[in-house]
Structures are given as structure tokens and as C-alpha cells.
Amino acid sequence: MKIFIDPGHGGTDPGASGHGLKEKDVVLELALALAKKLEEYNCQIKLARDKDVTLSLSDRTKAANDWGADFYFSIHINGHTNADANGYEDFIYPTVSQKTTDIRRAIHAAVAPVWTGAGRANRGMKTANFHVLRETRMPAVLVENGFISNAKDAELLKDTAFRSRLVEAMAKGIAAALNLKRKEPKTGTLILHPARATVAQAQEWGRRNNAPQDFIDLASLYWQIAPERAGVDPAVAYVQFAHETGFLYRDGNSMAGIDATYHNPCGLKTTQGGSNTDPNAHQRFASWEDGITAHIDHLALYAGAPGYPRADTPDPRHFSFITGTAKTVEELGGKWAPSPTYGERLVSMLKSLLATEAPTPQPAVKIKIDGSYSRIQFDEEAREIIIEI
Fold first, then answer.
1. Which of 104, 183, 186, 375 qualifies as a FRET site for 148, CA 20 to 30 Å off?
2. pTM of whole model > 0.70?
3. What domains appear along the chain, each with residue ranges and CATH number?
């Protein structure tokens, strides 16, 4: 099943605006989140745009028609000179098949309650002679999610939790309308797993990779926080720390120009986000404990850990719509990072860590001398015991 998602407007066309919001930005965020959510189902997704670019209406419908889409879903936000106008409505072309009517009905049944549950209006199921509904050769539905010109609707659209509910409802409505089946769970390297390695192994792995001492010392924090807080394998998080920071900027600063003073072990961005090369787009944490906790919470959210999402998190991008979308390290590819092989690279690093043998602890010796005790270390290489009194 091929689903074409069209976030309206973009580029030089901002769409409606009001209360600090632009339609083109809000619908793009909703579309990207919806595309991620639909990855849980057996379907193919194509976006009209995945960034802020200008597209004509014919560009959009031609792309969907050429791809052979089975369903066209257009996301918009309403605007009106009447500031009291509010709520949700959706549209189909006036003369369509019963199939399109049924698809729209299922989507409406899922999405409208999100708005009415927040005290906003259900404006009903309507028809319109819109280009994207008329010129598409497949069932097409256009949704108007609230009024950007209405103060209450705009506040809801700014709320992360509300947007997550909206995305979840749109996904469920589309899945029900198209009879989509959920994908079978993938086998892979589980993120939620007891520690696969010891702190000593991790620290030795860091040494063998010529990591700075600070990187080596921080292993103990991962092994303290990850298992107890979220059930995350600390070895998974630690190799991701190594990958994201180049073993704590062993060879200098990151591509974003941030350094260890950010206490940011995994490239987490601010809530607003921004360019990968913009240091101001990356979160600065007060301490390594805060930064590592945020890292663990973000991994746990992707993995769908019990109790997540959680309120007591320093994670600035703790968006509920990503909950459970990557239960394995391999599935982080294309989600945590754009590269589809991202997760595989982490698994390769994890295997290297697991194959590392921790050094054998040197035996400690207690010697009683004149009633006092001195603890000394046996120098195994020199085969000597030196006693200082």
C-alpha cells in the first residue's frame, strides 16, 4: 500500500499564519511525525516535501500520480478573519467513489475526537473542488487541523503532547481506513536489555581506542544510570556516546563546533532543533549526569521502555510520537540519524566492545607490621612487592 503524504504550502508560500505559527511549519512537523508513525505498518510512504521548499499544486499531484500512490493525504491548518472559528474538518472531492467516502469517514472518526476532546468544534465532513482532491488518480482526503487564527487552537498546536495525540489519531485513522497491518517485530539487538558487558570491559575498550581519560571515566555513570532508570543496556548507550562524539572529541571538536563543555554525549538538539552544524541547535547540559540521563531517556523512549515518555527528564526532545519506534539498535538507522546504516555501525562497535577482555585485577596483599596494616599492590610484571612503612 503506497501512501502519499502532502504537507501543504512551503517555501515562499507560508499558508495561514497567526499567534506565532506558520501553517507550512506546523503541517511539515505533523507530516514527518505521521510518516514515522506509519512505518509501524506494512506500507510505503512518500512525502510531497520533507523540508521547507516551494511546490506547486501540480508538482504535488503529479508526484503522487507518477508514483502510483494508493492514497493521498493532504495536511493543512485553517485560517479565518473570524478569530472565533475553531476546530477540525476534512474534505473530499464532490464526485468520488464509495471507497474514498469510507476512507474519509474512518479518518474523521479517529481525528475529530482529538479536537472535540480539547473543547474544540467538529466542523464535519465536507466536499470541495480543491486541486489536490480533483487531480489525483487515487482516493484523496484533505484535513484542516484547527484554526491558526484562533488563539486556543494555536495553543493546542504548539503543545507537544497534543500534536502527538493528533499524529497518533491520523495514523490510526489511516490504518483503519486502508486496513493496514502492523509489521512483524524485527529481530535485532534489543536496546532494552541487561548489561551485556562490564564497566571494566567498556573502559578497556575506550583505552584501546585511545579515548581521553574523561571518556573512560564516564563509563561508570552509564552503568549506574542506564539499567536502573530505564532498563537500557549501558553498553549500547556507551558505544553510541563514542560514535556521536568521536570518543569525546578525541581528534578535536565535532562538526557542529560543540565540545565536552556541552556535556552532550549523543548530539541531542534543543527543543527547537536546527542545523547539524549549528552549535546553538545543540543542547548544553549542566553536568554529565544530566547529559547522560537525557541520552538514556531518549534511547528508552525510542525503545518503548515502561513508564516512557516521562515528565522528569532533561531530554529536550522527549516527543511522545517516537515512543516504541525503534526497539532494536538496528532500527535507529533512519530515525535517530538519517543514515539507514546508522544502527548497523553501532552494532559493529558494540561487538568490538563485547569482544574486549577486561584486564585482570592485580591481587591485593595485606601485611601486618607492628600492629598496623598497609594495603599494597603486587607488581605482577616486575614480580615484586614493595612495602612502605
1. 104
2. no
3. 2-178 (3.40.630.40), 199-354 (1.10.530.10), 361-389 (no CATH)
